[in-house]
Amino acid sequence: MTETLFRDDAYLREVTARVLSADGAGVITDRSNFYPRAGGQPGDSGMLRWPSGEAVIIEAAKAEADAILHRLPEGSALPPPGSEVTLTLDWERRHRHMRMHTTLHLLCSLIPGAGVTGGQIGADKSRLDFDLAEPPTKESLTERLNALIAGNHAISETWITEAELDANPGLVRTLSVQPPRGAGRVRLVRIGPLEAPVDLQPCGGTHVAATGEIGRVEVLKLENKGRQNRRISIALVEE
Fold this sequence. Notes:
It is a single chain. By secondary structure, the protein is an alpha+beta fold. The chain has helices at 5-8, 91-110, 138-150, 162-167, and strands spanning 3-4, 14-23, 26-29, 31-32, 46-50, 53-57, 59-62, 68-71, 84-89, 116-120, 126-131, 155-161, 185-191, 199-202, 217-224, 229-236. A hairpin with a 5-residue loop joins strand 7 (59-62) and strand 8 (68-71). Helix 2 crosses helix 3 (138-150).
C-alpha cells in the first residue's frame, strides 16, 4: 500500500519515500505525491532520484493493493528495494491539471440536474459530456465560468461514510463512473462556503486551493455526441 500524500496536500512538489519494489513495470514506494491515473485525470509525471541514479517517471498509475506504480521508460536504471528515493513532480503539468479539474467542477455547477456521461482532463484541453438536450451557449458558459473563478471561492474537502452517500445520491453527478467504494468512506470536494457551496460532489482528484488560482478560461466548443449527449470542451487562457 502506498500512502497517498497528494490527498492531504496537492501542493507537495517533492517528497522522499522508501522503495517497496522495482522492476520492469516500474517502481512502487511506501508513499507518493504522484496522482495515479484515474477518474479522467492523467497520472502525474516527473523524476525519481536516488544516491546512485535517476529515472524519468512517465506516468503514475494504480497497482494492486492500493499501491501507486511509477512507470519508467524501458531499460531505465532501478533503485534498490528498501532504498530512499526522491519523487519530484512535473509541477507545471500537475498544476494545469489541478486548475482544469477545478474548472470542470465549476462547469458542473452551471448545468444543474444533468448527469455527466464522460470526461477527460488534459493540460491543454479538457472536456465534460452531459446528458443534456440543449446546453447553454459557449459564450454564456465562458462568461459565467470566469465570474465564478473571479469570486475566488475556497476549495475544501470532507469525508462522509458510504451510507451517507447512499442517502444522498444527488451528490454523484457522474453516470459512467461511480466513486470508489470499499474503504467505508468517500471524499467530497466542496467549492465555496459550507452553508451554500457552489459545487459539492465526490472526487478523488487534485484541485487548487481557491478558484482565483485557475486564471481565465474559455469554452472552446459544444458538440453533439449522440442523443442528449453534449460535449463541452474548455481551455486555460494564458496571459
